[in-house]
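Ops channel
N.P.: pipeline sanity check, posting one input/output pair.
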């Protein structure tokens, strides 16, 4: 049985999801946030240093470990697979083993890139995985390692993540729209753009429900879930919708010409799944949460950028 305000260790507090999670978890318990670089209120921790991770776990003895850190550079992973596997597979394994031994819950994130993109119906949690590249393979290995370690865990597979800070497609499109009259955007990859804040809010809600129900390690709501916004679009569809909205909000002066192109016209070191829409109905039933269409989060995120003004 966990105390009412469990100690939470947050890894990756500077990431898109981690930053949002940092805020959302405050209501659940005291949060020790870690990041690679020194920042106010943050413990510096290089997550490739397994001994340092072990020492922090032993020192802080978290009751909840929220792992928002990952190697997310999908193309660079093909060049440096070892570094990617360290963060995406061996770190979660280490955290899960510690959690199993010390009865701590591990909150962790995975990706739609564990699938090969051949499906044409939303993919549920039971669907077989077949990652196409190093990033997806390493994330799948992380999922399996957590499941095998046997610690209480919540693993949320998400997709196409963006936020009003960090490196993401939405911010890249806004920048390019200010610099160019014409953009070419891939229109043959289909997924569900998901706002980092939605992921963080649902994660915190799920955690709180588990705690309120007695923090039972055998609670059937623990396990792996698909957590994305609802609906689907292509990168071209996302770019068009977000730039139209950005123009309406005054974030860009004029709409560039947005040309649809096939993935073959934009070769990348890593192959991406052509179709990776996740079926998000099960998590909504299990936790009674609502996952709105992708346009909803996009509008809120752009609104936030507009309110933030020219410092963006
Ligand atoms: P980000 O790339 O925004 O953040 C990753 C975080 O990990 C950053 O805080 C980064 O620190 C940290 N990190 C990486 N390497 C180290 C290290 N050696 N030591 C300490 N910290 C490190 O990721 P997202 O928030 O976008 O992703 C969150 C989760 O969602 C991940 O599990 C990811 O796999 C998954 N996901 C993401 C998708 C996306 O589109 N981004 C899609 C599907 C799933 P720093 O700021 O210093 O780099």
């Amino acid at each position: 049985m966990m105390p009412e305000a469990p100690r939470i260790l947050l890894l990756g507090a500077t990431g898109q999801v981690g930053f949002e999670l940092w805020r959302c978890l405050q209501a659940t318990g005291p949060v020790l946030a870690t990041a690679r670089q020194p920042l106010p209120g943050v413990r510096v921790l290089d997550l490739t240093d397994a001994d340092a991770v072990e020492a922090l776990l032993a020192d802080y003895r978290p009751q909840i470990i929220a792992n928002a850190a990952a190697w997310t550079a999908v193309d660079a992973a093909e060049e440096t697979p070892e570094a990617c596997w360290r963060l995406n597979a061996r770190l979660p394994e280490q955290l899960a083993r510690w959690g199993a031994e010390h009865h701590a819950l591990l909150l962790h994130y995975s990706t739609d890139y564990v699938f090969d993109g051949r499906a044409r119906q939303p993919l549920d949690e039971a669907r077989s995985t077949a990652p196409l590249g190093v990033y997806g393979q390493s994330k799948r290995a992380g999922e399996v390692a957590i499941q095998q370690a046997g610690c209480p865990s919540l693993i949320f597979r998400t997709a196409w993540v963006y936020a009003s800070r960090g490196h993401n497609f939405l911010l890249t499109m806004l920048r390019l729209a200010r610099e160019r009259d014409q953009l070419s955007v891939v229109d043959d990859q289909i997924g569900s753009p998901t706002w980092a804040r939605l992921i963080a809010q649902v994660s915190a809600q799920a955690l709180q429900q588990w705690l309120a129900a007695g923090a039972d390690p055998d609670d059937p709501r623990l396990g792996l879930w698909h957590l994305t916004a609802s609906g689907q679009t292509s990168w071209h569809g996302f770019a068009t919708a977000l730039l139209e909205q950005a123009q309406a909000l005054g974030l860009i002066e004029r709409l560039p010409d947005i040309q649809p192109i096939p993935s073959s016209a934009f070769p990348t070191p890593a192959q991406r799944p052509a179709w990776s829409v996740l079926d998000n109905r099960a998590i909504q039933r299990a936790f009674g949460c609502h996952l709105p269409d992708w346009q909803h989060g996009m509008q809120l995120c752009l609104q936030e950028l507009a309110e933030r003004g020219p410092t963006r």
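N.P.: looks fine end to end. The chain is about 40% helix and 15% strand.
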